[in-house]
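Hello K.,

You asked for the raw outputs rather than the summary table, so here they are, unedited. I folded two proteins back to back in the same session to keep the settings identical. This is the first:
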Amino acid sequence: MKREKILGLCYLIAIISLVGAQFFFIFQQQPEYDGRAQDVYAEDDIAYIADYYYGLIIMDASNPSNPYEIGRLDQPSTYDSGNQIYVRNQIKVAYLVGNDDLRLIDVSDPSNPTQFSVLSIPSSVIWGMFVDYPFFYLYHSPSQLGFITLENSIRDVCISDDIAYVGYEDGLKIIDVSNSSNPIALGQIGDTRYHNCVVNDTTVYATRWIDYLDIIDVSDPSNPTIINHYNKGRHSAIGSGIEFLNNTLYVPDMNYGLELIDVSDPTNPFKCAQLEPSRLTENIYIDYPYAYVTCDFEGLVIIDISNPSIWSEYSIINTIISIISIGVVACYIALKLFKHKIGDDHKKNRT
């Protein structure tokens, strides 16, 4: 009798947990997103999204499990190429790259962002930007960075200590930008398309469009050398940006979600974690302990990266609770059926 009471109590707890998990799963889902998220910048619990259709969407992320929109600036026809954003919170200004311009937007009132200035770049298509305030490095087609023209399209730029590392169709170009009016080419490596790059100290991490991550020693800018390759092992398109934090690369993959690559030993990089949402993962911005990830038509996903060994996307915990609860219920039913069968067999034996 005591055992039955314990089993009954477990059954009741499992049912309550299951119902509760589904309740929170329904009411804590991120709101339906009707745009196409391309890039994100986050600070002070506010996420600023560069959107393919709308321009700027601002979301309150103070509750990471339930971000919600608080403002937007609709300009659907202008943001169909670069789609990148940077926000300087000290003066509450968002800098949004469009097709052929850089737009300055006042975000001091997040519920009512207003554009107050535009820098037009006619006869070109802007692919993106890198900000080393007060300088903005815009790269566009025809391929140009500052006053340096390259043979093919620029895909990404990262800058450290007045040195620009430019990923483009024909490899990695290294440029001295200490004199912004007269940038000087220093060196180059590779003959393949580098889609994204990020620099840490004297090492550049550059992703190819398909499969590979190259780790490049740039301690001598005039003679960069490839230290190692990391093969993703499957044909997949890299997203629009990568991040480096604590000897780990955060690499968005348009087909396979977000991948963490441990590069503490550059000669032996390895995947240490991966989140595979059913989304087209586009870009990432890290404001520790959260990673803000744009997922194209799915909008914004916020991920707790404080402990990658138990990597979780918010609301996945509900699914885990549901699985455990269903398991407990199933076990209870199985035990009841097994007990009932033993009782029937015992009665048969007695007769």
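The second followed immediately with the same parameters:
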Amino acid sequence: METQPRERGTGSIYWRGTRLWIKFYDADGRRRYESTGGADESRARRLLNKRLGAVATGEPILGRADRVRYEEAAKALREHYKVSGDRDPAEAEFRLAHLDRFFAHRKLASIGPRDAEEYALGRQNAGASNGTVNRELAVLNRMLRLAYEQGTLVRLPILRKLKENAPRQGFFEREQYEAVRRRLPPDLQVAVAIAYTFGWRMQSEVLALERRQLDLEARTLRLDPGQGKTGQPRLVVLTAELRGLLGEQLERVRALERRTGRVVPFLFPFLSGRRRAAQPRRDFRKSWASACRAAGCPGLLRHDLRRTAVRNLTRAGVPERVAMSLTGHKSRSVFDRYNIVSEADQREAAARLDGFNGDNHGDSRVVGLETRSVKV
């Protein structure tokens, strides 16, 4: 007959059907039950002693760790991102979609380095770059770490990153930018001008802007907290060119309101559905690709506008601290990576060196120094 334990650190072994179970009281005096998975009494005794030892030393009881599946950990990660705001929800879902397909129904404790390598190989075969795979593995690693912190994973596996290619070097010279921009619709010309000037991300920051975020009188444009990738609010003072362009865009939006009889809160709207309700403007990859081809510079990306903005701000002499506040770069290392040196920069450097060497050749002060050195 089993003896009922009542105190912390006591326990017992008993039969339930054909399997042995253990029962013990944890550090808080709560009664805990756990199956041993078989009928081996010595194994049951070792498991009970292990649990009692954990209670005595204050270690967490991880009885469910070997039964937690990927889906449960993925749900916990989604809830964590929602509560903490550590990651943009749409971007996180994009990464998790690929992970979900590969790791579905797996036990979390069984995921290790080899599984990560198989996942990476499959994504590479599907055409994903090493950088993309690394971003997805980072989400998986965060999921595993969160499970470890919450006590549903006993140990953390080591997931190694893939070697990435050198950062993309694409950027726009002024002539290229103008050639592409004038081949876009008027509203997109304004959106591209914002990205070119301040380096704002097109989809999540520029196209999502609402009219309330623009103040033409104060000449400011702002992002709300959580709207940008870093989660920080942002405020920029408009250049004269941008102020004029945004004023024209605002008039187009007001004309749309008069035509439809509907309130349009967005700065870059489009009408959708049977009721033609206003929504933020959607992606324009096809229009962008067509404009680039027509301008004679196919292959340039909209994200190259962000790199160009960093480069232009730096060349214009804007202090890096101020430039980073405009573009929304939180890390100096990432900002430096975007501060690209172009062939035109190198040609300018060569021209400066030519001038410097030429000046030195006929510089009386240098000759005088050389003469004095001979006399000494």
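Confidence is low (pLDDT under 50) at residues 1-6, 360-376.

Happy to rerun anything if the numbers look odd on your end.

Regards,
P.
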